[in-house]
Amino acid sequence: MLSIPKITKPIKSLFLKIWPRKTSKNKIDFFLKKFRAHYVSVALNRIGGEADGGYLIPDILHRVKFCFSPGVGETSTFEKELSDSYRIKCFLADGSVQGPTVSDPNFEFDPLFLGPINDATHVRLDSWISQKVSKDCGDLLLQMDIEGGEYAVLNSVPRKTLSQFICLVIEFHDLHKIRTFSFFKKFQSSFNKIFQDFFVVHAHPNNCCGAVGIETFSVPRVLEVTFLRKDLVKTLLKTEDVQLPHSLDRKNVPNKKELNLSKEWWDKGVK
User: Which pLDDT belongs to residue 19?
Assistant: First the structure.
């Protein structure tokens, strides 16, 4: 009798690396349907300037005392406007730079990466918050741009920690990998956790890196999303339907072509 050798884990891992499992179109459609269902229309203001570093935020900043902003990069215009216009104290963290490019008395910087563990170079979001503010500190704001590390952070952070924020502004990276199931799984898991307590109030493709075609629609490689906690939506909700691009949207990179988000992401008329 012919014996069929058992596929070992190393061989299976090699097989999946060479021929990664593909995400079905049905799974992507289901995710986009959920994204559309969680997209609501509220009045928005632009904070942080006219190019990269500027984001659309609902009218909630008068409630915020502290902003946590992992991922500093080359610009801190968002945090600077929070400090200058709203007197919001900003905690910044980034292990790849020595500090923000501008100084401000309301800035407090840590040379650490945000991550799913605490070690010499990383700090968890829940640990970082507990180090900086008291439990009764009030409503918080999160602005996160950590170059792909957002999925590990979101999938490891306790839901209770995330719900301390009334608004999340997150830049999601590597969306061109959405047809690879291993990426899609962590991508979908991140959004499912957020959707438990937040609605989407704005989404804008970063035109830095282009987009890829998925069947009949496009997916930007980098997508900025603003979320508002559900308990605040009722008082800010507009009767108008969501319409993109928003009048306050600006190109992240001025000398590159703008990207518009496909209606599959936001138009509730899409079936």
Answer: 63
